[in-house]
Structure formats: C-alpha cells, structure tokens
Amino acid sequence: MTKSASYQLNSRSIAEATKEWMTKRGVTTPQIAELVMFLQKDYYPGLTPEECEAYVEAVLTKREVQNAILTGIQLDLLAEEGKLLSPLQEMIENDEGLYGCDEVLALSIVNVYGSIGFTNFGYVDKLKPGILKKLNDKHDAACHTFLDDIVGAIAAAASSRIAHRKQAEREGHIGPPLD
Ligand code: MG
C-alpha cells in the first residue's frame, strides 16, 4: 500500500475529528464531567460541574488522548461492521473479558497526568456510573468495547489534573491555565 501523497495533518483537525466522533458515538463533555464530579466531590466540596467540564476539556486537548480516542472508536466501529479478522472480531464484538487491550489503550490516557489516575480508573470501571452504564448496555446494537474504557480514563485523568492543580493552589502557585 502506498501512502497518500496528500498526507497532511494539523492539530486542529485532529482535535475536531475527536470531538465529532465522541459526539457521534453518544458521549458529551458534560457526561464525562459528571463522572469527574462523582469521583471528586467528596474531596473537593466546592467543585462545580462547570469546573469539571473545564478539566475534561483540558484532557481532551492532549494529542495522546485524541489518538487513543480515535483508535478506540475506529476499532469499535469496525467491530460493529463485522470487518475485523477472526478471532479479534468475536473478542471485541462480545467485549471478551480476557481481551484486555481496550483497558491497555485507555491507560495511555490515564498516564497523561501521572499514575494517580489508576485508582480512579479502576473505581469507575467497577461501578460504571452514569454514561458508563449506558455504554455497557449489552442489549444495544452498538459496540463500545473500547469507548467505555476511554471515557472512564478521561474522567480519571481529569480527576488527576484536579488533584495536581488543587495541590498547586494550596501551595500558593498560581500555575498555568488548564493545560
Ligand atoms: Mg471495555
């Protein structure tokens, strides 16, 4: 296969494609922010939904995160269309418990703000609150084997970002904006 001669990428188009595909697959920023609120409300009583949304947006600006989202959604779509090679097709289509690459891909998102996101990632994966419950509905014809972990990972990464930022605030650093 030859590579496209018109190969051209820019950061903005990748960010836009990511947003567009998340929306097409039924996931919105407020829904992810709800997970962040669920994870962090007991630690930061003054935390608002708007603040959580801003943290989620900050996570979504990271290229590593966008890459993981686009890759995961693509694999979910190919599974829905029955276009993967067997036995990968069956494993992804049925969200096979021993497959595990969906979680591994999502960890590249959790890692963006360091390892403190791991606990939160495991926690929402176990409890599946809000949008995660919907994505895990097996009666649905859609396949979200990758997307559910990705959404949990974005919430976990945003939670880590909150922890880092609040620490900086306590120490009196003004810090950069939500990078
Ligand atoms: Mg999964």
Automatic annotation (TrEMBL):
Any single Pfam family the record assigns to this protein: PgpA
Swiss-Prot/TrEMBL GO biological process terms: lipid metabolic process
Domain YutG/PgpA: 31-163
Domain of life the protein comes from: Bacteria
One GO MF term attached to the UniProt entry: phosphatidylglycerophosphatase activity
Protein name (Swiss-Prot/TrEMBL): Phosphatidylglycerophosphatase A
